[in-house]
Amino acid sequence: MGSEAGTFKCTFKDCAAKPFQTQYLLNSHANVHSSARPHYCPVYECPRSKPGQGFKRKNEMIRHGFVHESPGYACPFCPDREHKYPRPDNLQRHVRARHTDKDKNDPKLLEVLSQRRDGLSRGRRRRGAPQ
Known about the structure:
Number of strands: 2
GO molecular function: zinc ion binding
Domain C2H2-type: 8-38
Region (Disordered): 85-131
Low-confidence stretches: 118-131
Keywords: Metal-binding, Zinc, Zinc-finger
Protein name: C2H2-type domain-containing protein
Number of helices: 5
Radius of gyration: 19 Å
Order of helices and strands: HHHEEHH
Oligomer: single chain
Number of domains: 3
């Protein structure tokens, strides 16, 4: 897979995307050219649950859901450790920006990043696999 040329090409003016393998993938890509944000956060008080504030892609909405469910990842280098980041990539971005002297493989950082919520898996769920 991966290296095969796709036959479904985006017809949006000046779009440089490579042809897609399936019509479904092309349709999914078309959302990047639209102002529509059809996927909303189900948490009532969340700003991303309001019209116009949703997500273009369903996977973005699902990833956003972790901000409501995560116990948070505290920065091991900040003295107060008060602010917690909802996702590991948020903490990693913080460390790159605020703690430039720290390595991404620092043992303290890796220890915090290794903490995962129960039930979260890093892999994709396979079709037909038990849920």
